[in-house]
Amino acid sequence: MSKPVSICVIGSGYVGLVAAVCFAEIGHRVICVDNDEARVKTLNEGGVPIFEDQLPELLERHRDKGVEFTTNLGQAVEASEAIFIAVGTPQGDTGAADLSYVEAVVSEIARGISDYKVIVEKSTVPVYTNEWIRRVLHRHGVDPKDFDIVSNPEFLREGTAIKDFMHPDRIVVGTTSERAAGVLQRIYEPLTGGSYYEQPGAMKGACSKENPAKLLVTSAQSAEIIKHASNAFLALKISFINAVANLAEAVDADIEDIAAGMGMDSRIGPKFLRAGLGYGGSCFPKDVAAFHWVAQQHGIDFQLLREIRKINETQKDVFFNKVLSALWTLRGKKLAALGLAFKGNTDDIRESPALEVIRKLLDAGAIVTAYDPAGMDRAKEVLPGSAKMRYADDLYSAAADADAVLILTDWKEFGTIDLVKLNRVVKFPIVVDGRNLYKPQTMLDHGFTYVSVGRPAGYQAQQGKPRSMVS
Ligand code: UDX
Ligand code: UDX
Fold it and tell me: Does domain 315-451 have CATH number 3.40.50.720?
């Protein structure tokens, strides 16, 4: 590999921390900056502040070697050639991305520039943000010859972020500066040249020396649009299959078979066709809203994006009504909520459909006992335990004496429940599955009434449990 690049990553969240350890993994020298002192302290003491497969191993491998953590942004900028901005770009009230953190960080970067730097937008930002970064640097008196701005959007899914980084479908670099493009190509060369994949201990995945990562160089605006358009298209696939699921239910068809049949068409593909509670997370909701706002700002009425959001919002009401139709009334009913995170294999509860459904059920007077393998601590911060909202240590405790069990997050362990044991602990054998983790017949065979998404409604157990079995 050509000479290691000195890299500064600003923001040690789900995006920045993963980028920092992965850049170290491919041989670069990284300084990861964050303004959250507690988080930096945790990282320096060996802690792992977020739940990501393989992150603990890479932190162990590179902490104080290839990557260091600090709150001192100026010093980190001075010492680095490439500065990656990976701070939050949350959704503002109008739907526009809140770029105040980006602007704050760019102002601080300006003070640290004394020689040529490549400033990289890693955070998801609306098109033309690179222009705004340029203006802010000018206002701070930075000489235009001392920097270039590049868009390098992330396509990381939470739970598989390390793998998605090390084995990307594509790396997108947005800049018209040859010099800046050259720096980014040097940074990603171990992946695009494939040498990384032959290293002992390399992260395994789809890429290899023979099939290295692909890098696309385009304009900054095109790169920024690629990110928003890709996320919006994935969200479209999910809202589309959810709308089809609601139709399937009305005609006694099975959405799982429909999705399988659609996905066998190589032009459609099987991924992102899983019907359920709708999408959540810190990206899709915010990116669809930001993309819609950007279009509006440029006089484009992107109606389709409004439909994607509308269907997604409706999906949570559809699920709530399933629970209501299974139980008739909700006041005082004891419900086991399996799942709090916005999807399986993550601790992130931002925009979690599970939490939105739980709030609706609590408002309707139900008593909820929730369990999630990783998201409970974060959930308790926004939904504290109370007489009506309880947290259990495992799924069977959550299901004890429940009038119904709700599956809200697609954790693997919720798809492999000991149904005999579950039937013994619940008050009534009713499962309302928002993630279609089971075949209806399996549930029927174990004596459960099973309600799920986009399947024929008729999966009712013949009768409730004999009185002697009610605990
Ligand atoms: C976020 C968005 O979710 C994602 O869509 C975008 O592409 C990148 O930013 P994420 O890593 O999830 O990604 O953000 P978050 O988990 O909020 O982490 C941001 C980090 O930046 C936090 O640790 C925060 O303390 C830090 N930060 C924020 C700074 O260091 N300085 C700031 O001024 C603001
Ligand atoms: C997404 C994009 O996949 C990623 O490329 C981008 O960089 C960031 O946003 P993420 O939000 O971490 O990643 O998770 P993802 O796996 O995409 O799931 C998003 C939401 O869609 C989750 O709530 C998930 O449960 C839901 N989903 C996903 C479905 O409901 N059905 C599906 O088929 C797939």
Answer: yes
pTM higher than 0.85 for the full model?
Answer: yes
Distance from the alpha carbon of residue 34 to the mean position of ligand 1, in angstroms? 9
Which element (helix H / strand E) includes 218? Answer: strand 215-218
CATH number of the domain located at residue range(s) 6-153 in this protein: 3.40.50.720
Q: How far does residue 120's CA lie from ligand 1's centre (Å)?
A: 14
Give the domain ranges of the chain.
Answer: 6-153, 227-310, 315-451
- 227-310: CATH architecture: Orthogonal Bundle (1.10)
Q: Is 315 a pocket residue for ligand 2 (Cβ < 6 Å)?
A: no
15 lines ligand 1 (CB under 6 A): yes
Residue 97 alpha carbon to ligand 2 centre in Å:
19
| Among protein residues, the one whose CA lies closest to atom 10 of ligand 2 | 157
Instruction: List the structure tokens of 466.
Output: 């004999």
What's 407's DSSP letter? E
Closest listed residue to residue 175, CA positions, set 162, 166, 184: 184
How do residues 335-365 score in pLDDT, each as one tens digit?
999 999 999 999 999 999 999 999 999 999 9
C-alpha 219/C-alpha 213 separation (Å) is: 20
